């Protein structure tokens, strides 16, 4: 959109005045008018494996119920909690604006409003001013639709007072709940750690793959002349995975009191749990069964810091699996 002659930045920002005669447009009305939906998915940290897939599944399910088709997804991992300058977010905005200028009516689908921003100030700033005022979603009448909350934001020419009020409110409440929950859980985390349970997604043992990439990496690291990129290609992982996993191997060998033997025991335990996953399913995720979740919980500390916890035996793993009710998170 070209700059209107004779209007400075101040006048562009002030275009939501009474002279524009706003029209109100609801969530359902935007859905009916949309012919180019885009979706934005985001995870703050790199450690939350599988979360983007869960988000996309949630968005796809709700979009299907709204009869929205042809959704283009933009997703990023490790975006940071309060970072307004995100590459995929910028690409999404640019794509949506481009479609609008081609005569389409895009809408931006979010699983929840906190995917767009985690700070109440950021949501308005990004929506109205990124990458510029003229090229923003707000100026080009492209609303945000938070599916979980059934919330829609107002645009330059279509108001939505309740959505504009609730969006920063939901974000603020969400942030307060996270902070409160973090404080309340510290004691529980410490107690769980003493029992060998650490929070977070369990280490991926790649039970669905014919060859275990962890074992393959150990073997390939002994072969002369292989570059990190070549190793990554062979095991089917990224260079960063090779780098980080090499560091993990070295850390175990250095910190474990039994050195190389401790590292080999760690690999052996991984093989045992991997075989259980092949037979009974994953230790985490929406489809994980409670028996395997118990195995994952009770081995999480060992897989993360084997130098701090006893090495589990097959008998231990069978105990966690068979008597899983004893190893579930304690309810308050």
Features:
2 domains; 12 helices; 50% helix; 332 residues; single chain; alpha/beta; Rossmann fold
Summary?
The chain is of the alpha/beta class. It has helices at 9-13, 27-33, 51-65, 87-101, 120-129, 161-194, 213-220, 228-235, 239-255, 259-280, 290-304, 314-322; strands spanning 23-24, 36-43, 72-77, 106-110, 144-146, 151-152, 158-159.
Mean pLDDT figure: 84
Count of alpha and pi helical runs: 12
Amino-to-carboxy terminus distance:
55 Å
Q: Strand portion, in percent?
A: 5-15%
Q: Residue share in helices?
A: 40-55%
| Tally of DSSP β-strands | 7
Rg, nearest Å = 25 Å
- Number of folding domains? 2
- Helix-strand pattern, N to C? HEHEHEHEHEEEHHHHHHH
Q: Strand order across the biggest sheet? A: 3-2-4-5-6
Instruction: Tell me the structural class.
Output: alpha/beta
Shape descriptor reads elongated
Task: Fill in the CATH topology of the largest domain.
Answer: Rossmann fold
Write the layout of secondary structure elements.
Blueprint: H1 9-13, E1 23-24, H2 27-33, E2 36-43, H3 51-65, E3 72-77, H4 87-101, E4 106-110, H5 120-129, E5 144-146, E6 151-152, E7 158-159, H6 161-194, H7 213-220, H8 228-235, H9 239-255, H10 259-280, H11 290-304, H12 314-322
Parallel strand pairs: 1-7, 2-3, 2-4, 4-5
Antiparallel strand pairs: 5-6
């Amino acid at each position: 959109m070209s700059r209107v002659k004779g209007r400075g930045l101040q006048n562009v920002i002030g275009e939501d005045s009474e002279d524009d005669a706003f029209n109100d447009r609801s969530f359902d009305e935007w859905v009916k008018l949309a012919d180019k939906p885009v979706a934005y998915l985001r995870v703050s940290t790199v450690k939350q494996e599988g979360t983007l897939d869960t988000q996309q599944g949630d968005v796809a399910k709700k979009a299907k119920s709204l009869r929205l088709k042809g959704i283009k997804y933009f997703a990023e991992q490790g975006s940071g909690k309060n970072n307004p300058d995100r590459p995929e977010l910028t690409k999404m905005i640019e794509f949506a604006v481009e479609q609008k200028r081609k005569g389409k009516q895009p809408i931006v689908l979010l699983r929840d409003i906190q995917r767009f921003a985690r700070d109440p100030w950021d949501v308005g700033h990004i929506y109205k001013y990124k990458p510029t005022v003229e090229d923003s979603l707000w100026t080009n009448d492209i609303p945000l639709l938070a599916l979980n909350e059934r919330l829609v934001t107002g645009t330059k020419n279509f108001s939505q007072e309740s959505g504009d009020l609730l969006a920063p409110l939901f974000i603020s409440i969400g942030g307060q709940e996270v902070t409160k929950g973090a404080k309340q859980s510290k004691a529980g985390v410490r107690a769980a750690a003493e029992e060998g349970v650490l929070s977070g997604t369990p280490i991926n043992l790649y039970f669905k793959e014919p060859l275990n990439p962890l074992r393959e990496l150990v073997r390939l690291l002994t072969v002369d002349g292989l570059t990190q990129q070549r190793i990554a290609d062979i095991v089917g992982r990224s260079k960063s995975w090779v780098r980080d996993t090499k560091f993990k191997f070295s850390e175990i060998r250095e910190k474990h009191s039994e050195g190389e033997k401790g590292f080999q025991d760690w690999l052996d335990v991984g093989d045992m749990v991997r075989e259980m996953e092949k037979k009974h399913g994953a230790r985490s995720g929406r489809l994980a069964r409670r028996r395997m979740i118990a195995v994952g919980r009770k081995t999480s500390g060992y897989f993360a810091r084997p130098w701090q916890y006893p090495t589990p035996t097959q008998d231990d793993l069978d105990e966690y699996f068979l008597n899983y009710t004893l190893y579930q998170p304690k309810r308050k």
